[in-house]
Design a protein that fits this description.
heterotrimer, B: alpha/beta, Rossmann fold, 2 domains, 8-stranded mixed β-sheet, 12 strands, 32% helix, globular, C: alpha/beta, 4-stranded antiparallel β-sheet, 10 helices, 31% helix, 25% strand
């Protein structure tokens, strides 16, 4: 008869609440002051974006022809542009474009990167060599240049811009995931999964991926900020989304001609971009610290 | 009754940049049902590779593995899946052998799910009874591996290996990473399970005291080859191969009135890559003579059940 | 414990905690012992008992935070190392007290040749020129059984056992008086372990070095140590000469340790493990830390401070229900 070795050690009963790894990570993520601020700010920005139609004082294209180039006042909190359109409303509506561009491009790039990286890392051999050399070529082209090239080729429009923006993210994701897989591949729990008759598919997606995806998550989060800036840059040079879409970069672009006379037209879009990117980066820092196993205990 | 496991001239080589690594070389032995074969050796002797090759986690380069008389050396597909239900493995490192993102009851249910023999409700029940069997507290069954200590994690690994009722389990250094008092608990558990379920073990370790306690027969490996094989007690009371003698003399004894007199081996381990023919222990052997490095050493039955691979075994032990 | 004048190292009431968030890990709880010159003391215990923390506290290399030395003194030849300024400590480390760590794979810098690594220590503590230091380093390598020709090789070119010899050479470079060896042979194969232990013993004899050997392997203790301190949950629960501990052990934990070892002479059907596991160091049980696992527990064990009592000349035990062997 096998006796259970569960002798009480005299200390308090062992922790029994069922915790979720996901919730635990979220809790750890918002521990630091920077992460708290960043996450709070980002949540606010997303909420403002979602509720734009409710909180914007005017429509994004409503023209107030009597108040063109108005400086900030009670009627127009952030002033108006050359066509009398309220800046605050345009920024609020514009956040929808900038954020969704940023998020979808980042996500798309990450998914492509994770997929290719997993295939390369798990199967190894010629497949791996082929994919990695392709990534070498891909990443030898300067990111911004590639982005501009693709945007110019595909033309304007939301989806074309997402594609153009995501293209630069792929090699980074591939390298990250493949590197993680190389490290993780030697671990015995993967051999164990094979020994208990798990299919190759199950081993890759149920066992391997969840344990290697963390650095990619951090990378994606940090990448959103960069993508938003790149989207703004594309609009600035006339590619990407086209007027009258109030994307932040487009607003920046429109404002640059009047930088001396009406600085508010370039200042507020610039500030908003900076604050958003900063909040995302602070959040990303928190996430990276939360996921770092060495900092865990 | 045929033995449960029969290994015939099993070899496993790896292609490495420097050449061909002979990890396991021409190994042959049998294991009877319900018994334990201990495999001892130091780093680089190939014992872990041997274990993994036997249960098909690695593909053999040459030779045959027979399970219950059936040749499973190169089976694949459905047949391999069936074989995997009969042979299992318990790993050395309790920290890397469990998926850190799965709760332990999920880890134990997985082999049951893969077998397809259990319905959803039966899964939980069976996993629960397995955890009872290996002595895991009910309160801990929803834990993640990092919330448990090494000994408990190892019990999870054992439960996972037992899940599909295998006939044969390779225990690859299952207690080496554990504290002494926990080692004893886990060893007792393994022996109880053998008595209860009649499972056959191959127990791989470098710890000679542990292997003596748990094994019926022991096989000593050096650089991929079996150098000596005999019943456990016999190996310790009457070791014949120079390497075995050196190994046994090196164990620090707790008898303070008997200071150790370890046989001093010259030099370091030679390389298993593109090895020369002849005895692999030759460069370090205190009894080495010219002839030793010329022909490969054959396992010879020197006394009943006691095999030694040394061309000078009779001279050395006269 | 012995004549005042002979004492080389005296540790009194050493206590160390680690803080992790709101939790406090009581790693070392009032440890005291003494050593004479040339002796070897074995600190025996399982993982988490606090042995490595004691050694690191003596050398003052504990990370502050999360570690905090709550109190205690470490008198090395009359000087309290706990109160010495860091500048002076820099001289003491390496010159008077040296440490060998457990894992030879990570103890050496992979980017420096082993010759350079030994020279670094030599130049820090002496006024050697380049040539002189190199010469001394080569001598040290020969002393530990490595060909001087390997002076310019990198750690990856050495096996585990050889790496550990290099580590020993580095530790002995400045001829320390006290050597702290933290599980020096645990990561090594048994035949290599025998060689390294033999080397350590010979060097100890030759240079009259005092040594504190930390290990969980009772066999290693039997072959190298003069005195033994058994540590459990940050406290010394038994202390004595090798003979006291191996022949006349008294504490139930020590009983348990010896009983759970598979023996080469007795053919037991089952081993006798100690039930349960080490207590959570953030929530140590009241009274004797071992009482929840102790087969001889009585009421007094559960409360209050149990002190070390001298049960025979030089043999101490922290137990209120001693079961002497035999």
């Amino acid at each position: 008869m096998i006796t259970t070795q569960s002798v009480s050690t005299g200390s308090k009963p062992l922790k029994v609440e069922k915790t979720s790894l996901f919730l635990e990570t979220l809790q750890r993520m918002v521990k630091g002051p920077g992460a708290k601020v960043g996450t709070a700010l980002f949540v606010l920005i997303v909420l403002a974006s979602i509720c734009a139609p409710l909180i914007a004082p005017y429509g994004p294209n409503d023209m107030d022809l009597e108040n063109m180039y108005a400086t900030p006042s009670a009627a127009h909190l952030l002033g108006t542009d050359g066509l009398g359109r309220d800046q605050l409303s345009r920024l609020l509506y514009g956040s929808r474009y900038s954020l969704s561009l940023g998020l979808s491009a980042s996500l798309f790039g990450a998914l492509a990167g994770v997929f290719l990286g997993s295939v390369a890392g798990y199967f190894g051999g010629k497949t791996e060599t082929l994919i990695m050399r392709l990534m070498d070529i891909w990443s030898s082209l300067p990111g911004m240049l590639l982005c501009i090239l693709i945007s110019a080729t595909l033309g304007a429009g939301f989806f074309n811009t997402v594609l153009a923006l995501s293209i630069g993210e792929v090699p980074v994701g591939v390298r990250l995931i493949r590197g993680q897989i190389l490290k993780e591949r030697a671990k015995e729990y993967l051999e164990a999964a094979e020994a208990i008759n798990c299919s190759k598919f199950s081993i890759m997606f149920r066992h391997l991926l969840p344990n290697v995806v963390q650095p990619v998550l951090v990378n994606v989060t940090m990448g959103i900020g960069m993508v938003i800036t790149m989207a703004a840059a594309l609009s600035y040079i006339g590619l990407g989304v086209q007027p009258p879409t109030p994307e932040w970069g487009a607003l920046l672009s429109a404002g640059r001609l009047h930088i001396l006379n009406y600085p508010h037209l370039i200042m507020f879009p610039g500030l908003v971009i900076a604050i958003t990117v900063l909040s995302i980066n602070l959040m990303g820092d928190g996430l990276r610290d939360a996921l770092d196993p060495k900092l865990r205990s | 009754m045929p033995p449960l496991i029969e290994i015939k001239n099993l070899s496993k080589y790896f292609q490495v940049p420097a050449g061909m690594l002979h990890a396991v070389e021409n190994v042959s032995f049998t294991i009877e049902k319900g018994k334990t074969l201990g495999v001892v050796g130091e780093s680089g002797c190939g014992k872990s590779t041997l274990g993994r090759t036997m249960i098909r986690l690695q593909e053999a380069t040459a030779g045959h593995i027979l399970l219950d008389g059936e040749d499973i050396t190169h089976v694949s597909g459905k047949k391999l899946k069936e074989v995997r239900k009969k042979v299992q493995i318990v790993f050395q490192d309790p920290y890397s052998s469990l998926n850190p993102r799965l709760r332990i009851d999920d880890t134990i249910q997985e082999p049951l799910k893969n077998s397809g023999d259990y319905s959803r409700s039966q899964l939980k029940e069976k996993a629960s009874s397995l955890m009872d069997l290996v002595g895991i507290d009910t309160r801990l069954r929803q834990s993640y591996p990092h919330e448990l200590d090494g000994g408990r994690r190892q019990r999870v690994g054992i439960a996972r290996a037992l899940a599909v009722n295998p006939e044969f389990i390779v225990c690859d250094e299952p207690v080496s990473s554990l504290d002494v008092s926990i080692q004893a608990q886990v060893l007792n558990l393994l022996m109880d399970l053998q008595d209860q379920m009649g499972v056959t073990y191959m127990f791989v370790t470098h710890d000679l005291s542990v292997v003596r306690h748990i094994s019926n027969n022991i096989c000593v490996m050096y650089l991929g080859e079996v150098v000596e094989m005999s019943p456990s007690k016999e190996l310790f009371s009457n070791s014949l191969h120079p390497y075995t003698k050196a190994l046994l003399s090196a164990i620090p004894s707790i008898d303070i009135d008997q200071p150790m007199q370890p046989v001093q081996l010259k030099g370091e381990l030679t390389s298993p890559i593109n090895p020369k023919p002849g005895c692999r222990f030759f460069p370090r052997c205190p009894y080495a003579r010219g002839g030793c490095s010329e022909q490969p050493q054959q396992l010879e039955e020197v006394s009943p059940q006691h095999y030694v691979a040394c061309c000078r075994v009779h001279e050395i032990n006269s | 414990m012995s004549n005042e004048n002979d004492i080389f190292l005296s540790v009194r009431g050493l206590s160390v905690v680690y803080t992790s968030g709101k939790k406090i890990v009581h790693a070392v709880n009032g440890v005291s012992f003494e050593m004479k010159k040339g002796e070897t003391l074995g600190l025996v215990g399982e993982t988490g008992a606090g042995k490595t923390t004691i050694a690191k506290a003596i050398l003052r290399i504990l990370p502050h935070p999360p570690a905090k030395v709550l109190g205690g003194e470490v008198m090395l030849e009359g000087k309290d190392l706990m109160g010495v300024p860091e500048k002076e400590m820099l001289k003491i480390r390496g010159e008077k007290v040296a440490m060998i760590f457990q894992d030879p794979m990570t103890a050496l810098n992979p980017l420096m040749t082993i010759g350079d690594q030994i020279i670094e220590g030599l130049k820090l503590h002496n006024d050697y020129g380049e040539v002189e230091a190199a010469q001394k380093a080569k001598e040290l390598l020969e002393m530990v059984g490595i060909h001087a020709d390997r002076f310019k090789e990198y750690p990856f070119e050495f096996s585990g056992g050889m790496k550990q010899r290099v580590v020993i050479a580095m530790a002995l470079a400045c001829e320390p008086e006290l050597l702290l060896a933290d599980e020096p042979t645990t990561a090594l194969d048994v035949t290599i372990q025998a060689q390294v232990l033999d080397l350590i013993n010979k060097l100890k004899e030759k240079y009259g070095i005092s040594m504190i050997l930390i290990t969980h392997n009772l066999g290693v203790v039997a072959q190298t140590c003069d005195y033994v301190a058994v540590i459990y949950a940050g406290k010394i629960i038994e202390y004595g000469s090798k003979r006291d501990i191996f022949i006349n052990y008294a504490h139930p934990y020590t009983h348990g340790l010896f009983a759970s070892l598979p023996s080469f002479s007795i053919d037991a059907l089952r081993l006798k493990p100690i039930t349960g596991s080490m207590p959570d160091p953030t929530q140590l049980p009241p009274g004797c830390a071992f009482h929840p696992r102790c087969p001889f527990v009585i009421e007094e064990c559960r409360n209050g401070e149990i002190s070390l009592m001298e049960i025979s000349q030089g043999h101490f035990c922290r137990c209120c229900n001693i079961q002497p062997k035999g």
